[in-house]
Fold these 4 entries.
Entry 1:
Amino acid sequence: MHIAVAGNIGSGKTTLTQLLSKHFKWEPHYEDVVDNPYLEDFYHQMERWSFNLQIYFLNSRFRQVMQIRQSGKKIIQDRTIYEDAHIFAPNLHAMGLMTNRDFQNYTSLFELMETMVQPPDLLIYLRSSIPNLVGQIHKRGRDYENSISIDYLSRLNERYEAWIQSYTKGKLLVIDVDNINFVDNPEDLGNIINRIDAELNGLF
């Protein structure tokens, strides 16, 4: 079984992945942020490093999805391959930070990969307002994230909403994270767990 958590930068994906993996005894698969050789360069010089970064993420996520399906385990994944292709890469292209040539190359590669991967059994989308995202990003204090602009986050949020509206690949659970605190409030986490249980009951 494959559960995936999607959402903008700072929406709480990694934290929720940790909490749910602990509760359900699912094996967590996280985004490769620590070992990513392009991330810091990208935030300092987006235009130069956008294609390299997106190819790195695409490769890493494709490998992850293939391993998830082959393992036969119950796995929860922090961010999906679809977010790279439907949100981050097109956004960089639209902002003039990825050339037409690179974007076409990237899209062609993703479309090939997509024929070989299965979507998650359940997608959990964390919906958040921009002020909430900014607060969370500042709170975790990663140096390379200090340069992320409100405009960049807003564009990503718009693309997330458009993608979620048209998502038909499987079961979808949307959680509005603005007014809940699943880290410090056990009741909020309990409500999320109950909603996931309700969605998954139809899976077996």
Note: The chain is about 55% helix and 10% strand.
Entry 2:
Amino acid sequence: MYQSLLREQLELLKSSNQYRTFTTLSRICGQYPFAKLNGEQPDPVVVWCSNDYLGMSQHPTVREQMHLALETYGAGSGGSRNIGGSYELYERLEASLADWHDKEAALVFPTGFGSNDATLQCLLRQIPDCVVISDALNHASIVNGIRATPNERQVFRHNDVEHLAQILSRYPIGQPKLVVFESIYSMDGDIAPIADIVEVAKRFNALTYLDEVHAVGMYGARGAGIAAELDLVDKIDVIQGTMAKAIGVIGGYIASTRVIVDAVRSFATGFIFTTSLPPAVTAGCLASVEHLKSSDDERQKLQINTALLRERLKQHDIPVMPCSQTHVLPVLVGDAERCKVAALRLLHTHGVYLQPINYPSVPVGTERFRVNATPNHSQAQIENLAVSLRETFDHFAIPLASKTFTSEVA
């Protein structure tokens, strides 16, 4: 019975073209964005949808420090942070992250998903009668953390500050409230009106929780994120980030006051009951963060390549969704089946790897490719991507920008 029930759900997923398959890629060390495609073809493919936004996973210093830590400490951490899994590299990494965000303290988790999930659960459980108000497009890790608690929760329309204010005004000024939002939304590439959200939150005596996972490393002074770029760090109570994207390794973290960090360290079950990051991973994260604090090269190259890619896609009438303001360029396909077959053609005919983005990551009817250039992509690769996308869109009669949007594309 149980197998049949699950099989029915899987078949339903497949019939709607929302079933997800893995594309087995073997990245080639030192040659990013090239990767080998599961032995099916001799030539490498070019990856255009990786979260390794700055190519830091390939950086010589990061790799060197990971090798050194492996030979110094061994492979694993040996336990949770409370039982044998805290070591000197952790102290240095958390101090570095706190310094990066101009906060009193930081706390590292094994994943970015875990840092959102565990921290939000903890804060909502430990602050009596706290109401949480969350942006409608917040990441699944945020939604998961909120839903795991019995707290009252409200959702405000995406980036709609007026709607946020209307919701907050319903509650007494003395009742605890937590406003949760992101700086950059990864599926649309847009930026939250952080200053306005913070002003409204503070007016109604609410804590602010900002997810900066798609911004850290790439924006702001020393790459500390959008809040830093806007000089709003001191207005944000909790900043959450990841080390799996621009930092190029893996892990999540929060940065806040000593009291908030200590409360999460002491009460968050998702932190207490999990093994800590291996020393080599921690060393790689630390090396990457320290490099990005002082180097603007990667950020500048990212912006140059993003601008060039945006221009070339526009020239070829590729429908980049107008909401995009950042390095994330969502290319609208608008149909799950065509998104799937277009990805296969791009991969096997043009040597371009783009993963279809379907429901539930995005609403049905807005299926897309989530494209991003990196400092490692060459001008020739950017040109080839634009040409390949245009050929593929024409082949499958996918609507171009001039037919899809009434306003300017990008």
Note: The CA atoms of residues 393 and 399 lie 7 Å apart.
Entry 3:
Amino acid sequence: MQNSRDKIVIPLVLLFTLIQVGLVFLLGYTPYPDSNGYIALARESLAHGSLYPVASQLNHYAFLWNSGAINAVAASLWLTGSVIPLLVVYALMKGATAWLLYLVARQLLQPAAAFIALLLYLVYPANYGEATSVLSEVPFIFFAMLAVWLCVTRKHYFLAGIFLALGNWIRPFSIVFLAALLIFFFFNLKKSLRLLAGYVAAICIIGSLTYFRTGLFLYQSKTGWMALMQYSWDQDSDRGTFNTDPSTICHNTRLNVSQKDDAWRTMFFSWLSQNKWEYISQMPAKLANTYVSDNVNLCVFLPNKQQREYMYEELSLNTLKSHFPRFSAVQWLTVANLLFYYVLLLTAGLSLRRFHRRSHLLPLAIILVGTLMLLFVGHGEARFHQPFMPFVIMLSAIWLSQFKHRHG
């Protein structure tokens, strides 16, 4: 049975990858707000003959965004004048992520569960069309999965650390995977030091190259304290002596991006000293907003995407509720995806009733560490749980495999 499964895995992954590439050309570019922002900053950088960030613009940027993702866009525009080649690369990365998921699952889980995990990933609607934008999730998840694969199957810990740092340059979330892998190793000193050495070495290279261009050691985006401050700050509450709108920092051209980040950090802790209970009371809403839905990627299937002022509206939970049962085709797909998503969460949770260190520890550590990070130093958005989905799917596959064994 295992050999017969292995024979069809590669054709399934190749078909999934070809569909991803085909959707790039069939559906075209999806203009998410952040994706448009990346393109605008990439074009500005090219106009200055520089990578992002541009040294002369450090005081004019509202904040430092995801440099790796923006420079990937700039490279595509510089080489071809279009983002389509980059979208094709992202489509290939999406396919490679499916393959890496299977290889990691085969190492951690039973063979039947690994195959089920792959099938779940391949049929999950939200996994289609994601590569039609230049958002950072696809490349970040690819590099994170590549690092996990190198650790659990190849034992190349130093190289895994390098790829985590590269992913962090694209989206500053690799600390979650780094911490989870250290937990998985039970802080084995030799493995941990190799992983950390690769991570730190790559960060030093990225930061130093940026320092030589800009005079600032920058190796990841600087949006965390800004987002935490702005989303924590209740504009309708009694703020006591704290009455400065956090958004004013964005427009302060006397400060560079690092100084703005320092200002937001200072403002946050000033706010926190007066609003400890409000900070804690916001956590349930952050958790709900992070996991309540998985609709964002379905926007790629909306007609007339370029003409929409607010692309998410048609697929939001409030809109779906008000339109029920008179749904468009994309809304029906979104509802089906939501049901699939909720089943994945439910079965992943059920799998924990029989905890096994080898199969459960790493997926659970990634999900829990990432969720705690969002609760304490982040804010809640549905996009933010996407790096966890391969591992939610692994946990779900464990339960489904056990259920099949018991009833099959």
Note: The chain has 17 helices and no strands.
Entry 4:
Amino acid sequence: MTTAFVLGGGGVLGAAEVGMLRAMFEIGIGPDLVLGTSVGALNGAMVARDPTPAVIERLTELWQDTSTARAISDRPFRTVRRAVSSGGTHLYSAAFIQQRLVEEFGTATFEDLPVTFQVCAASIERAAEHWFTSGPLVPAIMASAAVPGLLPPAKVGDEHYLDGGIVNSIPLGRAIALGADRVFVLQVGRIDRPLKPPQRPWEVARVSFEIARRHRFARELAEVPDDVEVHVLPARGTSARDDSLLAHRDFSRVRTRIEASYEASRDYLTALG
């Protein structure tokens, strides 16, 4: 049996995936294949590098580290005014996030990892889904997590990339295409919340993105072959509050999300027997 961990995108909500991972490792479920998109690329890289229960402590430390939160500016409105007035395309610099990734992974490559790992990003020039499967980890993660409007496009080689969530936020189909016959989907809870029509200009992009994200995942879930076992783990500790304009900067509930998702996933997995 080939077991895949599919880690979806979701920014700060990605802390929920740490709780899910803890629940799986506690009962001896480990991956043969790890696929990650956006923040799932970061969490996934950590797991693929150390596919043991020990990774949970490191992930928890990373998510609760105040310097991680500093990757997003603490002066958003001033930055917005500056970006708009200068004709810029993004609100935040990618420099600090890149620095944190280099500190964590150094020059590690996909080939160095003990578990097969792949990262999804959206190629601008080709208007296509792109999968990083070899070479340095850090540029691939940066490309996958380049949230449109918040961070600049990431240049890797001769191409520019934006957040992988644009093209494949929860890459279930990719895992099955690669031969997985047991898939654990680690998602951040957004697919569980009903969407409402946008009421403000900045909500239009979010709602549009959510429709695209959920539509593809729902389609792939409906098309899962009968001989493939898929488990969508429950995310907890998220709410409609996380859809607000500045929610991407709120790290105050990281511990709550980790613990709540751990408990829900533990109960789910226990029920499976």
Note: The CA atoms of residues 176 and 211 lie 23 Å apart.
